[in-house]
Amino acid sequence: MPDTPQNAGYMIAAYVVAGVVLVAYAVALWLRTRRTDE
Amino acid sequence: MILLRAGRWTTLAGLAMLAGLYVRALAFTPVERFQGAAQKIYYIHVPAAWTAMLAMAFVGGAGILYLLLRDRRFDRFAEASAEVGTAFSVVMLTTGPIWAKPIWGTWWTWDARLTFTLLLFLLFLGYLTLRGAVTEPDLRARYSAVLGICGLVLLPFIHLSVYLFRTLHPRPIVLQPARPALPPEMLLTLLLGAATMLVLYAGFVMQRMALAHRREREGHAHA
């Protein structure tokens, strides 16, 4: 039975990248709509 | 204003669900024995890919409805869906290679599934670029609708590419004719991921449509 590979670093990198993209887009949308409020 | 407020609250709900997804996927979902922890990338990569494809399906569908009914709301929805779809494509195209590196030994390979998904991203970019380049609103809506329909035509090829071509990409294990070949606890995490991305998509699209509506109104006011 092969050992389970130790590659958690890739998992963390992917979750960080996905979170950054989605939160950044949410913030960008919020800022763009807020600008039209002014 | 109602659309904008609903969009903001839906986005907040989506972000809370995203935090819940991270906790469930990272702490409460078992590690797959052969792929290791990198397999957990699946719970964000696959839902993001589904949402990007759904976004393009809506862009194409709204394009068809715009061409039939000439209702500007369909054009606004298509524009919003394309921009949001681009964000989900970025998630799909970044998390995919991060999974591929430890599993395949390479970040990228020009096989059919990967190339088609890159094409989907480029179509989103082309769609948004086209909208930025054409200033006359009716002409812009018509040209964009046609490009959106081209994107819609691409979707079956993306889904079927793993059957039609020799490809490294895994075949669907949820969207397959037999029942999903995934342990229940992993399937539940994947479904939570799909629900999270859908809620985020809805919130983003509502906000983006409200923004487009405001800009249109301001444009009329300045004219």
Radius of gyration of chain B, taken over Cα atoms and rounded to an integer in Å:
19 Å
Please identify the structural class of chain B as seen in this structure.
mainly alpha
Query: Over all CA atoms, what is the radius of gyration of chain A?
Result: 18 Å
Count of individual beta strands of chain A: 0
One letter per element, helices H and strands E, the order of chain B comes to HHHHHH
Estimate the mean pLDDT confidence of chain B. 93
User: What fraction of residues of chain B sit in β-strands?
Assistant: under 5%
Distance between the termini of chain B: 22 Å
CATH class of chain B: Mainly Alpha
H/I helix tally of chain A: 1
Q: What would you call the structural class of chain A?
A: mainly alpha
Biggest sheet of chain B, open or closed, and with what strands and sense? none
Q: If you consult CATH, what is the topology of chain B?
A: Four Helix Bundle (Hemerythrin (Met), subunit A)
Mean of residue pLDDT values of chain A: 92
Question: What does it look like?
Answer:
The complex is a heterodimer of chains A (38) and B (223). With 38 residues, chain A is mainly α. Chain A has 1 helix and no strands. With 223 residues, chain B is an all-alpha fold. Chain B has helices at 2-27, 42-69, 72-104, 112-133, 137-164, 184-222. The longest helix of chain B is centred in the last third of the chain and has 39 residues, at 184-222. Chain B starts with a helix and ends with a helix. The A-B interface holds A 2, 4-8, 10-11, 13-15, 17-19, 21-23, 25-26, 29-30, 32-33, 36 and B 4, 8, 11, 15, 18, 22, 25-26, 31, 33-38, 40-41, 44-45, 48, 84, 87, 90-91, 94-95, 98-99, 101-102, 200, 203-204, 207-208, 210-211, 214-215, 218.
Topology:
The complex is a heterodimer of chains A (38) and B (223).
Chain A: H1 8-37
Chain B: H1 2-27, H2 42-69, H3 72-104, H4 112-133, H5 137-164, H6 184-222
Helix pairs in contact in B: 1-6, 2-3, 2-5, 2-6, 3-4, 3-5, 3-6, 4-5
